[in-house]
Amino acid sequence: MDKRLAACEWLAGDVYTIADMATFAWVRLYERHATDLADYPSVKRWADALSARPGVQRGCAVLEDHMAQVNADLDPKVALENFFGNTQYTAR
Predict the structure, then answer these.
(1) Phi and psi at residue 13, to the nearest 5°
(2) 2-89 CATH fold
(3) How far, in Å, are 9, 38, 69, 76, 85 from residue 73 at the CA level?
(4) What would the pLDDT profile of 12-63 be if each residue is shown by its tens digit?
(5) For residues 84 and 39, what is the distance between their CA atoms, to the nearest angstrom?
(6) Which end of the chain is flanked by fewer CB atoms within 10 Å, N or C?
(7) What span, in angstroms and rounded, lies between the C-alpha atoms of 55 and 15?
């Protein structure tokens, strides 16, 4: 990805596309993946450019607000059961 972004402004070339939008959702969590973007300067440039876009900022804010509400309402014991217990196989 870093090689591609060294050659192009956006993943698909010179135009911002759904490829950038979809990939940014994963790259923005780089710290959770124990990745240092300083090791990937072209990816960092790309992620910084995406983060600066007003639409991306609004979308991330909506997600953060939603996740804060979900986390506030979720009992930790219920969460563990949903992810790792028998409840994970229950259709919702």
Answers:
(1) 130, -125
(2) Glutathione S-transferase Yfyf (Class Pi); Chain A, domain 2 (1.20.1050)
(3) 41, 36, 6, 9, 19
(4) 999 999 999 999 988 988 888 888 999 999 999 999 999 999 999 998 888 8
(5) 34
(6) C
(7) 16
